[in-house]
Structure prediction request, 244 residues.
Amino acid sequence: MQQIRDSKEYSYVDNAFLGPLLSAFGRSFLSKRNRGKSTGKKNIHRMGFLLVAAWGFFIASIVALIIFIVDFSRGWLNSGGIIAFIAAELVIIFSCLLFYVWYRNAYVEITRTYVLRRTFLRFVEKIEYRRIRKYGYHERYDHNNNFEDGLYLGGPLVEGHKYSAESVELHSNWANFGYVLGQLAFRILNERWAEPESDEDQNLIQEYVSSGRAREICLEQSGFVFLENDNSPYKDSSEEDSSN
Prediction:
């Protein structure tokens, strides 16, 4: 098992997804919803909390409109009240549209060959499993004793730089990435990547995931580099040190 440890640590907080907001309001709903999904050849994970929020604002706008019509018909509103209602209604409608667009735009796609994440602004992060240079996996409990974990996947470094053009960050609030952990565990244990069309390989991945072995292996080996994709300028010196 040819691997070396990379000392760099990664942060898993993505401000584009407003992590604190989702952690506070959507953790339980999102985790239960996404963990119920199994990964076949393709799987899309969206944040259901955003759709619930969009519907909530939509219902609020209808209720506010009914109240306005009743108050207006009874002559209880002056010009200032009408202006205030219109402003409030516009804010509610805008919030409804914002959460719905966010729900539609932001998702995680997990397949047998790659992982893709698209943000609210439709920026795309994508990496194929066979292109992964290193990964980082962490688990923790927040101050409310809620479990959460995060995963970073990085591809080969850009020539002459210390960053990767291919990388994906995932969080348990966004998607169930257990299958990805299974892919990593398969590579670590078998020293090759799983074949996407091989039922034997895919069944073994699912076995790693269901038994919890994938999580344990990935947590234990977090921060390691897959040498077949390692083009780091420190690679040669590390290999020389290990041979001495």
Remarks:
- The first strand starts at residue 3 and ends at 5.
